[in-house]
UniProtKB/TrEMBL annotation:
Matching InterPro entries: FxsC_C
The protein's name in its UniProt record: FxsC C-terminal domain-containing protein
Region (Disordered): 373-392
Organism of this sequence: Actinoplanes regularis
Length: 392
């Protein structure tokens, strides 16, 4: 029995897709007591127009269909046809009624640019399989701190696949699959939000001093430049300024970004778009500069969940390492309402460029999801609701 067919768009973090296929296969093999060499799942990751015979056979006989949802998935014709073929198999076998929801398994791989109605199929009651905190699965897999959550997700997904395969027993396709003539039901679905609202924009704020300002605070000034935006805390491993690195990450998520001053944050929080995201990148040493410390305390005193806060702490910076505990304490005192949060939107001690990339990606994904959910709710007439910058 082929327990699952794993469908994903090409060039979709292949290392992690293969890891998911391997981990899920191993967990299912363990649960059913099969030999390690037994094939329990098929991974279809080529995305090409060519359909090998094993892909056709797998799609004709698999008991469950797992789709790694992303904007790329929606835009890939092969993925859409696979989706449509399996949906037709379910429609052709109505003997088990509402068990459709268990056999077709959408998994949120990357939420960016997905329309709200993406995880839906006409006359099939689908039930997406969610991660513990509704994070994108690809992000969950990247974080070492989230490995227990990832293992829990794999275990729950394996349980659903095995239980469904053993209780439903979906028969093979009645006719040979005509992949060339198969309809792609995803082709007509709208991309992005497409609902008349403005697109999400990420505002990046650098809370760091200039080299001249930092002379009174630190001995090692190599991380600073003429402007705040020149701050490059991960030198020499990553000489790029942090703001440039952050904007690259935002661009990778197909979002627009703008660098704004920390002085503008209070006003933006009062009057920003409901979908905008504000990311505050904080040098822990900046809490000791009078003007920046005051601005940070004003933001932190608001206990405002509309701001994502990341605090880099280069492990190769001896001076910062020597003062790590006291700097951390000062940051937590600056943001008293958030120090107890177990949230991807408040990260202190991000000690490597790779961790920064991951943590910022997680923060943006989480903020975008929250901003979109809140942004689609229109103010009721007469309530006098003022616009608020929503994000993390």
């Amino acid at each position: 029995m082929l327990y699952f067919f794993l469908s994903c768009a090409p060039d979709e973090d292949e290392i992690f897709v293969h890891r998911l296929h391997r981990d899920l296969s191993a967990e299912i093999t363990r649960r059913i007591g099969a030999e390690p060499q037994q094939v329990v799942g098929y991974l279809d990751a080529s995305g090409t127009a060519n359909w090998p015979s094993d892909a056709r056979a797998a799609l004709s006989t698999c008991q469950t269909f797992i789709a790694l949802w992303s904007a790329k998935y929606l835009g890939n014709d092969r993925c859409g046809r696979c989706w449509g073929i399996f949906a037709d198999r379910l429609r052709a076998d109505r003997s088990t009624g509402d068990r459709d929801a268990d056999s077709m398994i959408p998994v949120l791989w990357a939420a960016a640019d997905l329309p709200e109605n993406a995880l839906a199929e006409e006359d099939l009651d689908l039930r997406p399989h969610r991660t513990p905190n509704d994070d994108d699965l690809r992000i969950l897999m990247r974080l070492r701190s989230h490995r227990p959550a990832y293992r829990a997700f794999v275990a729950s997904l394996a349980h659903r696949v095995v239980e469904t395969a053993h209780t439903r027993r979906l028969p093979p396709a009645r006719l040979a699959i005509d992949v060339d003539g198969a309809v792609n039901p995803l082709a007509g679905r709208r991309f992005g939000h497409g609902d008349g609202h403005e697109a999400t924009k990420v505002y990046v704020v650098i809370a760091a001093g200039t080299r001249e300002q930092m002379r009174t605070i630190r001995d090692d000034l190599r991380f600073y430049g003429r402007r705040r935006e020149d701050w490059a805390p991960y030198q020499p491993v990553a000489p790029q300024s942090l703001v440039a690195r952050a904007r690259d990450i935002v661009s990778d998520r197909r979002l627009q970004s703008e660098v704004v001053s920390i002085e503008s944050v209070p006003e933006r929080l009062r009057g920003g778009s409901r979908r905008d995201i504000l990311v505050l990148l904080v040098d822990a040493w900046a809490t000791r500069l009078e003007h920046l410390g005051r601005a940070l305390r004003e933001i932190g005193g608001r206990d405002d969940s509309a701001v994502a806060v990341l605090v880099p702490a280069n492990r190769d910076d001896p001076e910062t390492t020597a003062h790590r505990s006291e700097l951390r304490r000062e940051v937590l005192e600056t943001f008293p309402g958030r120090s107890s949060w177990r949230d991807s939107l408040f990260r202190v001690g991000v000690d490597s460029p790779d961790d920064f990339d991951t943590d910022l990606s997680v923060a943006i994904a989480t903020a975008q999801r929250r901003a979109y959910r809140r942004g689609v709710v229109e103010p009721q007439p007469g309530k006098g609701t003022r616009p608020v910058l929503e994000g993390p």
